[in-house]
Design a protein that fits this description.
By secondary structure, the chain is of the alpha+beta class. The protein has 5 helices and 11 strands; from the N terminus they run H-E-H-E-H-E-E-E-E-E-E-E-H-E-E-H.
Length: 255
């Protein structure tokens, strides 16, 4: 392998390691942390969405193509603020809230306003009542924050939860969003599919093969080093000469 390919491989491995650490870092410096630094939203775009305002007023429906804008990468934002956030989550409940701002490959449905923010919000309105919201915040908008979708309630805080549409109430029932789900770097350590097991076994086998190949090259006494042919230690070289002389003696004198 050329030096250029080795350098490219090393840079790629370093870049991948940095991205992976950025994704899997927990939001809190404690073993009890329940969310990583980065969450990936996926699945919007397969069906229309019916958003509502923060005070449960119906808003125009979003076609599936426009709803696909919500898919992307969201990063934990402990300093998140918007003046309309207090309409939906009171200030005294902010300590029970985790907010992830839209960071890459995602965007709000309102593209004309000057200051628009899209965020994943996890909150606990009561004991053993945890859920996520997908919210859009806009300045000078009486409907802000706009509620795009939410999850079902769960007893424990988790990102592995089914999503559903929101409704203004009454006889309108929410629909399950079966294709929508959250993905994190922590899922790489969750061996819950045959594909993950297969990739892990293949990776370990590849590392073992590379180590074994490297060891065989290091044990080769005649492999040239960077400064010329590799030399053997004195004891190993003496033993090698004795074996060669012994073999020559048998060849020249069979008796």
């Amino acid at each position: 392998m050329s030096a250029g390919l080795k350098a490219c491989g090393a840079l790629l491995a370093l870049f991948s390691a940095i991205i992976f650490m950025w994704m899997v870092t927990p939001t809190e410096q404690t073993l009890a942390a329940v969310f990583p630094n980065v969450i990936i939203m996926s699945g919007f775009g397969s069906e229309q969405i019916d958003p509502i305002s923060f005070d449960n007023n119906s808003l125009p429906e979003l076609p599936a193509a426009q709803a696909s804008r919500f898919n992307g990468i969201y990063q934990f934002d402990p300093m998140f603020y918007h003046k309309s956030l207090d309409r939906f989550i009171p200030w005294e409940s902010r300590d029970k809230t985790h907010i992830f701002s839209c960071t890459l490959f995602c965007g709000p449905m309102n593209t004309s306003a000057k200051e628009v923010k899209l965020a994943l919000v996890h909150t606990s309105p009561g004991e053993k009542r945890n859920l996520w919201y997908l919210l859009e915040f806009a300045d000078e908008d009486a409907n802000s924050p706009i509620v795009i979708a939410r999850t079902k309630f769960r007893k424990e805080a988790t990102y592995r939860v089914p999503w559903m549409t929101v409704t203004p109430g009454g006889e309108i029932k929410p629909r399950d969003l079966l294709d929508v789900h959250l993905i994190t770097g922590w899922d790489a350590f969750r061996f819950d599919t045959p594909l993950k097991w297969g990739c892990t076994v293949a990776f370990v086998a590849l590392i073992a093969l590379l180590c074994h190949s490297r060891k065989d090259k290091d044990d080769d006494p005649f492999r040239a080093g960077p400064s010329g042919p590799r030399t053997l230690p004195v004891f190993e070289w003496a033993r090698f000469k004795f074996q060669v002389l012994h073999l020559l003696q048998h060849v020249t004198d069979p008796a």
